[in-house]
Amino acid sequence: MEEKKVISKTKEIDVRDLTICEATAQMLAKARRDGVETAFDRAINMKACPIGADSACCKHCAMGPCRLNAKDPYSKVGVCGATIDTIMARNFARMVASGAAAHTDHGMSMLDLFREVVNGKIKDYRIKDTIKLEKVAAEIGIETDGRETKDIAMDLYRELERTYTQVEGEIPFTKRVPEKTLEAWRKLGIVPRGAMREIMELMHRTHMGVDQHYENITKQCSRTALADGWGGSMVATEISDILFGTPTPVAADVNMGVLKEDAVNIIVHGHEPNLFESILESVNEPTLVQAAKDAGASGINLVGMCCSGAEMLSRHGIPHAGNFMSTEAVLVTGAVDAMAVDVQCIKQGLAKVAECYNTVLLTTNPRCHIEGAEHIELHEHDPKSCTDEIVIKAIGRFKNRTLPIEIPKIKNTGIHGFSHEYINYMLGGTFRASYTPLNDNIINGRIRGVAGVVGCTNPRVKQDYVHVELVKELIKNDVLVLQTGCSQISLAKAGLLTPEAAHLAGQGLKEVCETVGMPPVLGVGSCVDNSRILIAASEMVRTGGLGNSIADLPAAGAAPEWMSEKAISIGHYFVASGVYTVFGVTFPIVEETKFHKLLFGGLEKQGLGKWGFAPDPIEMAHLMIAHIDKKRKELGIDKARERTLVDMADRRAMEAA
Length: 657
Ligand code: BF8
Ligand code: SF4
Known about the structure:
Blueprint: H1 2-12, H2 22-34, H3 39-45, H4 50-53, E1 57-58, E2 66-67, H5 84-118, H6 130-139, H7 149-165, H8 179-188, H9 195-205, H10 214-244, E3 250-254, E4 264-269, H11 273-283, H12 286-294, E5 300-305, H13 306-316, H14 327-331, E6 336-341, H15 349-356, E7 360-363, E8 374-375, H16 383-399, E9 412-416, H17 420-428, H18 436-443, E10 449-453, H19 465-476, E11 479-484, H20 485-493, H21 507-516, E12 521-525, H22 530-543, E13 555-559, H23 565-577, E14 580-583, H24 594-605, E15 610-613, H25 617-635, H26 638-656
Parallel strand pairs: 4-5, 4-6, 6-7, 7-8, 10-11, 10-13, 11-12, 13-14, 14-15
Antiparallel strand pairs: 1-2, 3-9
Helix pairs in contact: 5-7, 5-9, 5-10, 5-23, 6-7, 6-10, 9-10, 10-22, 10-23, 11-16, 19-25
The structure holds FE(4)-NI(1)-S(5) CLUSTER with Oxygen and iron/sulfur cluster.
């Protein structure tokens, strides 16, 4: 009885109130007709716990769990005496620890693979980008002149391993951090030693009865988050580029219309590029292509989702079917013959939906098994045995398709793959690749500032809506937007990752986009590729004219529809790097507490950035723009913008006359 009531309540809500993604809405409507439940339904039926939402509870020991009163936060303490600030800081720190662990473990897997490729034990992958290999090696002080690639690569491996295992000292990529930023970290004692050590220490300090000063906990929190951004995530990005190629702009299709009714459709969803790279070889294997044809298919159609999808989109122009909140909906098409997953952001609910539509759901990574899904492990020494098997299973499912298929006929073409190297080249030209033109256009005011808009989609808000409205408002106000992860896919579906979208930008940004032929919104890749934004920010500081630290830049960040602990870790490493970072949806904190004041203001006074929160996209945009304007004023370049915009208006008026 209870269950019936619950389902009818879900049905009252129009699918168009759940998402602005037309394809997802169409599939949610079909799911309802088919009696299939998704995370959207569960989010409606499961009210978020209000105490947890405020982070006002603790279950770190068996004297509790303890609940404090968010309305009167200082009226109570936990059984051990822990205050609201201690409890919130510990909870927040553990989100950072988990998010940082996810990125750094992913990075370490890439580094393991790199080592085995370099020493010749793995033969299915190879070093694809030797130029990048040498560049990264040189940047962290490895001699490259006249040396064999293999020797440079082995030294690079040994050096980068310190990112994880080093117990004392500073992680290698701190060499990329602008001096003044690094100085602030050193003063605060938050330069990461090694990720393993930082995460371990953070878990220790948040244990019952250890660190009970929110400021001290926050320090270790920053140190751990920095070990993610300038450590694990950066290693994942750089090693993936070295092994699989550095992205350059490529036109590619996004949305569910990339599925083909007459082909064997395989989706890869997850985060590590190795599974996807190998399956790309498998789907081109002549014997497997023939097997698909023998089964009556026109061919094999490989598409991506979420972050591994975003990496393949950037590197190879592989089509992308959608972001996090579309992973169940895409199965409702009935057209997906197999979905192969590895790690992170893989909803357990996929197993049930896959079962309803006879889709083969396969896990491939030893870290991630799902009850009800078949596990075929990917061994990097012989990856093809796993990926060939996935293709064979998909062909088998194609042959036995019995259910009707409905594929939303929506496809959006956009340009993806703006690595930090390419941004450099695009703006500076082949012979004088540099960030100078970007800085010049910021200084003269055509570009007001730069924003990173990143992160998840979350069924607690209308899918894609906050991302799209936020980005539109930013570019309208001449803010150049860099994007990663699920957010990039939201905007790609909205058609903003095209040079033509320049007409939505303000006059100044529009002029720059039209001159260079670039979109006002640049897709830079997956979530670990947020490290590219850090590198771009450092380059901007180094190029000159925009201050001495990342905190001086007219820049801001946002994750408007975030949901994961990884997003919190990313948010915090941006904040610790000096960036004003605004989150939407909800924030795990009680406002006006000491911990809240520290995150939302105190850290900035220490030379770092600060957190912000606004669920409304327009309000969020204007918080970011106000910050950018404040930075322009501090840099003394606020007047230049007014002059430039007046100049442009004059010129336009003259042209029109
Ligand atoms: O790392 S944006 S929903 S897929 S956590 Fe996950 Fe969020 Fe998507 Fe990639 Ni990032
Ligand atoms: Fe309660 Fe303290 Fe135990 Fe947390 S650590 S559950 S606040 S007694």
